[in-house]
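STRUCTURE:
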């Protein structure tokens, strides 16, 4: 090949590359404009009946109405802290038609507890929008003779190994909070993992376990109905709906604080215009009167922000729960 042929070939290749790149540049916005053109699946990696149900079903219904295609909820429990459902989304086609509705478990606490997962909680997903934020709360069955956290600790000390506490699964936030209390108060209480928050709370109400940490969003109706007794809110300020219930810090356990949160994510590599389109639609739904009123009744609040806001939040939560896992010794090889 002579010099002129080489230059001609190089120009042809450069032109072809430019055309290809321009095609990709215009394809992404076009894909977003036509999105969605078929049903979208939203995977919840836990059994039904948890605190996620209200808000995600509202969001799914409104997205269906707004975007003109069905957004279908699929509960897919299993694995460590919801990791089976999370993995199914992590390996899905990054086209916006398979989404994950996740709580802290699959994204931050499971990674802190398990040395190896089948996905990377940070790199495997494209955060879309954080939805809700609600404080965790410590409650007991009414048969437990304690009306405060110090009284509960005293009762546990006098009954070592006889008190069980439930959680929505091994390595989840409620499990880790229970282990934190066990360590901080030097009490012997037994962990009973369930496949979701709904099952653990049902057994607590039935008296099968004696104590649980869970979000106010799911516990509040049971506390107000007298089926459970609240001993502490795991945050730095009291709940406006339960003003007589002290915080865990007020009760002498300032490190025992955590809030439940949940959000919507897509597989990594999902086109940014699709992510932005979903983010805008979800934020509008969260601003609606129905969403605001429903969340207020559950002592939860909407978290409106950008995909980057949600990504930054997850990035900050991950090392915090890794440190807690190390402190409590919750690790699985």
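SEQUENCE:
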């Amino acid at each position: 090949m002579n010099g002129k042929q080489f230059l001609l070939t190089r120009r042809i290749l450069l032109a072809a590359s430019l055309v290809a790149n321009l095609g990709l540049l215009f394809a992404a916005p076009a894909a977003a404009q036509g999105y969605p053109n078929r049903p979208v699946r939203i995977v919840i990696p836990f059994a039904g009946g948890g605190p996620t149900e209200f808000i995600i079903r509202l969001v799914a219904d409104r997205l269906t109405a707004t975007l003109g295609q069905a957004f279908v909820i699929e509960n897919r429990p299993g694995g460590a802290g919801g990791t089976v459902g999370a993995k199914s989304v992590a390996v899905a086609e990054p086209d916006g038609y398979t989404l994950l509705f996740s709580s802290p478990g699959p994204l931050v606490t499971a990674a802190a507890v398990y040395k190896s997962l089948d996905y990377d909680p940070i790199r495997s997903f494209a955060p879309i929008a954080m939805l809700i934020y609600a404080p965790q709360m410590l409650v007991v069955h009414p048969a437990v003779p304690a009306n405060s956290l110090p009284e509960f600790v005293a009762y546990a000390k006098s009954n070592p190994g006889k008190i069980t506490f439930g959680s929505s699964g091994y390595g989840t936030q409620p499990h880790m909070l229970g282990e934190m209390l066990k360590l901080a108060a030097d009490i012997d209480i037994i962990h009973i993992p369930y496949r979701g928050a709904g099952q653990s709370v049902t057994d607590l109400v039935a008296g099968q376990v004696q104590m649980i940490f869970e979000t106010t969003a799911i516990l509040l109706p049971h506390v107000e109905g007298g089926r459970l007794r609240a001993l502490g809110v795991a945050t730095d300020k009291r709940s406006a709906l339960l003003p007589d219930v002290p915080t865990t810090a007020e009760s002498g356990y300032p490190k025992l604080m955590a809030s439940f949160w949940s959000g919507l994510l897509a597989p990594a590599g999902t086109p940014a215009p699709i992510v932005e389109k979903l983010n805008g639609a979800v934020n509008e739904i969260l601003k609606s009167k129905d969403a605001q009123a429903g969340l207020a009744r559950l002592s939860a609040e909407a978290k409106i922000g950008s995909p980057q806001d949600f990504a930054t939040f997850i990035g900050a939560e991950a090392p915090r729960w890794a440190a807690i896992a190390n402190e409590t010794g919750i690790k699985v090889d």
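REMARK: Strands lie at 40-44, 71-75, 98-102, 125-140, 163-167, 189-193, 211-215, 229-233, 259-267, 301-302.
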